[in-house]
TrEMBL record:
This is Thioredoxin. It comes from the Bacteria. NCBIfam families: thioredoxin. GO terms for cellular component: cytosol. The record marks D24 as: Deprotonates C-terminal active site Cys. GO terms for molecular function: protein-disulfide reductase activity. The active site is at C30 (nucleophile), C33 (nucleophile). The gene is trx_2. It comes from Mycolicibacterium sediminis.
């Protein structure tokens, strides 16, 4: 599966309608973003069960602001609609694979339940 560009109009739908979504916030003028793009694309081919989405921060400034993007590239990962990972800067392919493996193993429901339990204390 290749990467897909998403807009503010499709952002919430994309992260809630898919099990795992990686979102790469980038801009055309950003050298590190261009350097990370082949790694992100290769990851989408290697992990077809994970949605690899891209947000152009120049075309979607409101979405970038809502996501509190302060540096690019910024990678955010969502599982079952919940953000479970955020990283600013490039990631080597092996590290990106490790992140994806950890996200696949992560029990988001248990984490939400544990968090809800700690808020009641």
């Amino acid at each position: 599966m290749s990467t897909q560009d998403i807009t503010a109009a499709k952002f919430n739908e994309t992260i809630t309608d898919n099990e795992i979504v990686l979102v790469d916030f980038w801009a055309e003028w950003c050298g590190p973003c261009k350097a990370f793009a082949p790694t992100f694309t290769a990851s989408s081919d290697k992990h077809p069960d994970v949605v690899h989405a891209k947000v152009d921060t120049e075309a979607e400034p409101g979405l970038a602001q809502a996501a509190e993007i302060q540096a690019i590239p910024t990678l955010m990962a969502f599982k079952k609609g919940h953000m479970v990972f955020r990283h600013s800067g490039m990631l080597p392919a092996k590290e990106l694979d490790n992140v994806i493996a950890k996200i696949k193993e992560f029990d988001v429901e248990a984490a939400i339940a544990a968090d809800a339990g700690s808020e009641q204390s």
